[in-house]
Amino acid sequence: MRAQPTIQIRRANPNDASAIELLLRESFREHERFYTPEAFNLTTPGKDEIEDRIQHWTVWVAVRAKLIVGTVTAQSEDEALHIRSMAVHPKMRGHGIGKLLLGYVEEFALANGYEQMVLDTTPFLKAAIQLYERSAFVFTGPERNWFGTPLRTMTKQLTIDRK
């Protein structure tokens, strides 16, 4: 019996931008028909946008056997930490990578005094929504039109230990 390579989570660096771009495209490709072209392009940003996010926001990658198999980005918005561009490679789903990435984001949020985590999702990303709900995110606010694609916000309130 061979041991499976472990998943390591680390902060992304500019050299990861191309791999993250490819990962996002591969991860969302199966749902592309449900997005408008504008919404799909915003969901799957290019290398330059990803490099900018790595410089100005917090971006993590999940690495297995030296390959990036997952990613998530966090952006500060007042008292909330906004989660963006979370993706796990289709062949790696079901291995707990999404849960692991969300855990890193939550640890970061708590360590930096955020009161809540917020994310936006589309109703057709059913597996992702189930993960978010299992992680205590709840829908907040009405469904809205995002470049012709339906979008809902989910929020998780954080309990900050103020000792």
Q: Give average pLDDT, whole number.
A: 94
**What series of H and E elements makes up the topology?**
EHHHEEEHEHEE
Q: Return Rg in Å.
A: 16 Å
CATH superfamily: Gcn5-related N-acetyltransferase (GNAT)
Distance between the termini: 47 Å
Fraction in beta strands:
25-35%
What is the overall silhouette?
A: globular
Q: pLDDT under 50 segments (min length 5)?
A: none
- Biggest β-sheet description: 7 strands, mixed
Helix amount: 25-40%
Q: State the secondary-structure class.
A: alpha+beta
CATH topology: Aminopeptidase
Number of domains: 1
* CATH architecture label: 3-Layer(aba) Sandwich
By DSSP, the count of extended strands is 7
CATH class: Alpha Beta
Please tally the helical runs, counting DSSP H or I stretches of 4 or more residues: 5
Strand order of the largest sheet: 1-2-3-4-5-7-6
List the topology elements.
Elements: E1 7-11, H1 17-28, H2 37-43, H3 47-56, E2 58-64, E3 67-77, E4 80-88, H4 97-111, E5 116-121, H5 126-134, E6 138-146, E7 149-157
Parallel strand pairs: 4-5
Antiparallel strand pairs: 1-2, 2-3, 3-4, 5-7, 6-7
Helix pairs in contact: 1-3
Q: How would you portray this structure in words?
A:
The protein is α+β, with helices and mostly antiparallel strands. It has a single domain (7-157), classed as Gcn5-related N-acetyltransferase (GNAT) (Aminopeptidase, 3-Layer(aba) Sandwich), CATH 3.40.630. The protein has helices at 17-28, 37-43, 47-56, 97-111, 126-134, and strands at residues 7-11, 58-64, 67-77, 80-88, 116-121, 138-146, 149-157. A seven-stranded mixed beta sheet has the order 1-2-3-4-5-7-6, sandwiched between helices. Strand 2 and strand 3 form a beta hairpin. Helix 1 crosses helix 3 (47-56). It starts with 6 loop residues before the first strand and ends in a 6-residue tail after the last strand.
